[in-house]
């Protein structure tokens, strides 16, 4: 998470808690119709606001955020390396399977013709 988002969560969390406290205070002072509903909504605002505020404040204290200008792709770099390794291993398996099929086909052809398997040394390439 970037530094801006962390500080934004501090501000938003504090504001939600502030709104919740104001709603609860006004509900107790004025006793409007359905004041229990307002107190419940205010309590929810307080809980969500404090949770966001405290979580973001903890991230700030631990410096658990990315500074602007830093490489923001550091979090996903490890995942990209893992996917690249998986692709390489998948390519190796595909190549191994194809070569083994070609070898089996050549061996089957040699057996059916009653000949030994062709050797690479026996093959002669003529140039024009």
Question: What is the fold's blueprint, element by element?
Answer:
Elements: H1 3-30, H2 35-62, H3 74-113
From the N-terminal CA to the C-terminal CA, the straight-line distance is 65 Å
What are the low-pLDDT stretches, counting only 5+ consecutive residues below 50?
Answer: none
Helix content: over 70%
Strand proportion, as a percent range, falls in under 5%
Order of helices and strands: HHH
Please give the count of helices. 3
State the total count of DSSP E strands.
0
Oligomeric assembly = single chain
Rg (C-alpha, Å)? 34 Å
| Class from secondary-structure proportions | mainly alpha
Largest sheet descriptor: none
Average pLDDT value? 76
- Name the shape in a single word: elongated
Task: Explain what this protein looks like in three dimensions.
By secondary structure, the protein is mainly alpha-helical. The protein has a domain at 1-72. The chain is built from 3 helices and no strands. It is elongated.
What key attributes describe this structure?
single chain; 75% helix; 128 residues; mainly alpha
């Amino acid at each position: 998470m970037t530094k801006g988002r962390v500080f934004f969560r501090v501000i938003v969390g504090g504001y939600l808690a502030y709104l919740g406290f104001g709603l609860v205070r006004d509900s107790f002072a004025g006793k409007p119709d359905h004041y229990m509903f307002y107190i419940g909504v205010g309590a929810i605002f307080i809980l969500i606001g404090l949770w966001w505020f405290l979580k973001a404040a903890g991230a700030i204290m631990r410096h658990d955020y990315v500074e602007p200008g830093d490489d923001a792709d550091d979090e996903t770099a490890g995942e990209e390396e893992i996917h690249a390794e998986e692709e390489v291993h998948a390519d190796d398996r595909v190549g191994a399977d194809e070569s083994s099929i070609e070898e089996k086909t050549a061996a089957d052809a040699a057996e059916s013709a009653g000949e030994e398997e062709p050797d690479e040394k026996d093959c002669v390439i003529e140039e024009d």
